[in-house]
Amino acid sequence: NAGVTQTPKFQVLKTGQSMTLQCAQDMNHNSMYWYRQDPGMGLRLIYYSASEGTTDKGEVPNGYNVSRLNKREFSLRLESAAPSQTSVYFCASSVTGDSGNTIYFGEGSWLTVV
Amino acid sequence: QQQVKQSPQSLIVQKGGISIINCAYENTAFDYFPWYQQFPGKGPALLIAIRPDVSEKKEGRFTISFNKSAKQFSLHIMDSQPGDSATYFCAAPAENFVFGPGTRLSVLP
Fold this sequence. Notes:
The complex is a heterodimer.
Chain A: E1 4-7, E2 10-13, E3 19-25, E4 31-38, E5 42-49, E6 56-57, E7 64-68, E8 74-78, E9 87-97, E10 100-105, E11 109-113
Chain B: E1 4-7, E2 10-14, E3 19-25, E4 33-38, E5 45-50, E6 56-59, E7 62-67, E8 72-77, E9 86-92, E10 98-99, E11 103-108
Parallel strand pairs in B: 2-11
Antiparallel strand pairs in B: 1-3, 3-8, 4-5, 4-9, 6-7, 7-8, 9-10, 9-11
């Protein structure tokens, strides 16, 4: 059981380049999320998807687009990368069970924009 | 956007000491209050969570306390160990799952 898998793990981009971060979960969860984590800023929500076919903006959506391709996959696209988008990106999925709504994270993608 | 306030920002504790991290929330509609633990280079993972119908939950050395009237919940780590050194987040488990800013805990050997 792989859980939440995101690729690539490391990426260096030049300013203005575009790229897509891929994310897939094999836990049959309805909800999926993209966060970015910067030093001293905690985890900030970029976009989330409560179910297949729906997406909503989080706290910091500017400069990003997302696609919920199917129930398993949720991708994050940077159309024109900027140095301010240098960050660690985490994909996550969640399920509501006996312990409430629990979120499961991937291992992270380290992105540097130069 | 739901706000979750967390304190302190960082914490240094001697091995064997007690670590205490606090979280304050706004929305009273939540039915579940979690703490997440993150080690360097890894994604956060659920550590412990509590329902609002109980005031305290203990799992090993980790205890979560809930004060509904004050809209606060806290994490206590008893007999803190160097292996507990990590960043801890509380969360507001709404549809958009907002996290607190995190507390960086360092346990000195």
